[in-house]
Every structure is written in structure tokens, then in C-alpha cells.
Write a structure and sequence with these properties.
By secondary structure, the chain is an alpha+beta fold. It has a single domain, classed as Alpha-Beta Complex (YbaK protein), CATH 3.90.960. 29% of the residues lie in helices and 23% in strands. The chain has 4 helices and 4 strands; from the N terminus they run H-H-E-E-H-E-H-E. Strands 3-1-2-4 form a 4-stranded mixed beta sheet.
Length: 124
């Protein structure tokens, strides 16, 4: 809940307009989207990834894609000039994101976790 609480505080501090839709943590966009009242394509699916750049640098990112899409590993490799990309373990994802695996938010308050957003999300 760490990131969730920080996000709510950030929204409140900046007088953002939002609504909360409480639902059980599911982890599957196709199940959660109807609970939220949106199409799967309108959802932001968030996956924590491990990215290796050369032999010495490793970084972590949250790849954010439309709910009906898959993460394009080759696109991430190309954009970040990476030699290797994989999904992070649930333990790494939870530690870095401050969220339970399956409920990763499309926000990061951790400088060790960079956001990479698929431009297709702008279609919605």
C-alpha cells in the first residue's frame, strides 16, 4: 500500500479530481476492467522488468502498456539499448514498486524504478 498511499496524498495535495473504485486485488486486466467500468484496451497494465545494458549495468523499469497488449521486449531493448530484458520476480517487483504483485500502479516514487509508457495508451 506504500505507493497507493503516496499517490493518494500526491493527488490530494495537488487538488486533482479523481474517484476511487475499490475492488479486490485481482492482477488480471480482463477481470478488473469491468469492475472499473472501462474497456480492457483503456486499462494500463503495469509490469516490472529487469533490463541489462551491456555487461555491467542493470536497471528496473515499469513497462506500462494497454490492458489488451503484451509487453514488447524487443521494443524495450531497442529504446534502452539493452542486451537483455525480462520480467522481475514478484519479490523484486513488490520491493521496488511498493505494491503487491498483480496490483502494480502506473506510478513510481522510487528513483530505482523508471517508467516506460507505450504511446498506444494515448489512443484512449
Amino acid at each position: 500500500m506504500e505507493t497507493y498511499d503516496k499517490l493518494i496524498a500526491f493527488l490530494d495535495e495537488n487538488a486533482a479530481s479523481y474517484r476511487l473504485i475499490d475492488h479486490p486485488p485481482e492482477g488480471r486486466t480482463d477481470i478488473v476492467s469491468p469492475m472499473r467500468g472501462n474497456k480492457v484496451s483503456q486499462a494500463a497494465k503495469c509490469m516490472v522488468m529487469i533490463v541489462k545494458i551491456g555487461k555491467k549495468e542493470t536497471k528496473c523499469i515499469i513497462a506500462i502498456v494497454p490492458g489488451d497488449a503484451r509487453v514488447d521486449f524487443n521494443s524495450i531493448k531497442e529504446k534502452l539499448n539493452a542486451s537483455y530484458v525480462s520480467f522481475a520476480t514478484p519479490e523484486i517487483a513488490e520491493r521496488l514498486s511498493g505494491c503487491v504483485a498483480g496490483t502494480i500502479l502506473p506510478f513510481s516514487f522510487n528513483p530505482e524504478l523508471e517508467l516506460i509508457v507505450d504511446p498506444a495508451l494515448l489512443d484512449n
